[in-house]
Amino acid sequence: MRKIVITALAAITAAGAFAGPVAAEETSVAVSVADLDLSSAEDTQTLNARINSAVNTVCPRPDVRDLKANVAWEECKAEARSGALNQVAFARPFEGVELASAF
Questions:
Q1: Contact, 83 vs 6, CB < 8 A?
Q2: pLDDT tens per residue across span 35-69
Q3: Cα 15 to the chain's mean position, in Å?
Q4: Which of 10, 15, 56, 92 has its CA 20 to 30 A from that of 83?
């Protein structure tokens, strides 16, 4: 059973509650790809939807008025999505590659 793990290092702050160092927590979500054929456009869209759902789970949306938190949120989403797509590429490195000759 193949799974992709989406991990995000989320900084947790109480807006203005303290001026000390920011605590960080790592969150992971497993995304199954075992039932997908990634050469199919429909299954690729399904995988993207699963990744987006997992990204939204590991990177919760902050209050719209907190600009710094929104920048961190966008970075969190980009890193999580990038990490997931790298795992897909690593799990299936030769997907879609045809050999020039068969022995």
A1: yes
A2: 888 888 999 999 999 999 999 999 999 999 999 99
A3: 25
A4: 15
Distance set, CA 1 to CA 9, 27, 34, 90 (Å): 26, 21, 5, 15
- Mean pLDDT for the chain? 77
Determine the pLDDT at residue 66: 94
**Per-residue 3-state assignment (H helix, E strand, C coil) for 8-33:** EEEEECCCCCCCCCCEEEEEEEEEEC
Domain boundary assignment for the chain: 3-91
Distance CA 80, CA 25 (A): 14
Does the pLDDT of residue 102 top 60, yes or no? no
Distances (CA, A) of 50 to 15, 19, 69: 31, 37, 24
Q: What is the DSSP string of 33-59?
A: -TT--TTSHHHHHHHHHHHHHHHHHHS
Q: Which residues pair with 90 in a beta bridge?
A: none
